[in-house]
Design a protein that fits this description.
307 residues; alpha/beta; 6-stranded mixed sheet; elongated
Length: 307
């Protein structure tokens, strides 16, 4: 198996037909077919089902594509990194952000990259904390800033900041501004992020999270919809002040500290443990850390640096 076979295989997989893949790779269909046949013979299994119009990947083909995509992307990154090392930082880096992280440093990161690394192509996406490992493992993203990550030897997760969780809602719904115990807030009309991938971004204590989910009348998977629901007085939210800071600053929503127990969540920067370092990756990673620290120090982000 060599890089050319993998490139041809990926083209067939993505185009769904040998003819289209041949045009894309600028080779004859017969040559593409021969490389595919050699690859299937080497692996001892068919990678595609031949259809009247095109091909369809088998289970083995779909599995190989996940590997091929990571390998080809790493090769491209290595080539760009070495080729441009003597000149400027260049290449492509994809970063997956939790909602708070993209809100706090997404635009500053793009501005800094534009000013400092004009040849660097940056891809930003908002991801759920529960899907972090999946997206890192599949090379959908190179770097993540997400919450409450569990230890996993495949990845390196470094804590960056801690955020305190508070009760957020209209004054008439949350019942004042003073501290409230976790037990007491369970008697209020609660709205939480939908059960599933998003819940890891709320808190990491499964027993408390289960109690919260059992008492919440509404589970919503949209920050915008949650904000509108709080403004309408439908309920209140256990979350961070930063998520709804705009409404809190206008006085439309207020916060109450949560006690007994005090709740918080930790933001981690994550990457593959065996990912080869590139100048572009290191530059973006450093910018993410610097901008997070800057956001905390300038009070734009109500959080504390993690130890």
């Amino acid at each position: 198996m060599d890089s050319r076979q993998l490139r041809y295989f990926a083209a067939i997989f993505e185009e769904g037909a040998l003819a289209r893949a041949a045009v894309r790779e600028r080779v004859a269909v017969s040559a593409l077919s021969r490389h595919l046949a050699n690859l299937e013979a080497e692996l001892g299994t068919p990678l595609f089902e031949r259809l009247p119009r095109g091909v369809r990947p088998t289970a083995s083909g779909a599995r190989l594509y996940e590997h091929a995509r990571m390998i080809l992307r790493s090769m491209q990154a290595a080539s760009a990194d070495i080729r441009d090392a003597e000149n400027e930082v260049a290449g492509e880096i994809s970063v997956g952000f939790a909602h708070s992280a993209v809100k706090a440093i997404g635009v500053p990161l793009m501005q800094r990259v534009s000013q400092t690394y004009p040849k660097l192509r940056l891809h930003l996406s908002e991801i759920f904390s529960g899907s972090t490992t999946v997206q890192l493992a599949s090379s959908e993203v190179d770097l993540t800033l997400t919450y409450n990550q569990l230890p996993d030897p495949r990845f390196r997760f470094q804590p960056i900041l801690d955020e305190e969780l508070v009760l957020v809602g209209r004054p008439d719904v949350v019942g004042g501004r003073g501290p409230i115990s976790f037990d007491a807030l369970l008697d209020l009309p609660l709205i939480i992020l939908r059960q599933g991938l998003n819940t890891r971004a709320v808190m990491d204590d499964p027993s408390l999270l289960k109690r919260l989910e059992e008492r919440a009348q509404f589970q919503i998977n949209s920050i915008v919809a949650i904000g509108d629901s709080l403004l309408s007085g439908i309920g209140c939210l256990v979350g961070t002040e930063f998520i709804l800071k705009d409404h809190i600053d206008t006085g439309k929503l207020v916060t109450r500290p949560i006690v007994k127990p005090k709740l918080n969540r930790t933001l981690y920067i994550g990457e593959l443990s065996d990912r080869p370092a590139t100048f572009a990756f290191e530059a973006v990673r450093q910018l993410c850390v610097e901008l997070t620290v800057e956001a905390i120090e300038t009070k734009r982000w109500s959080a504390t640096l993690a130890h």
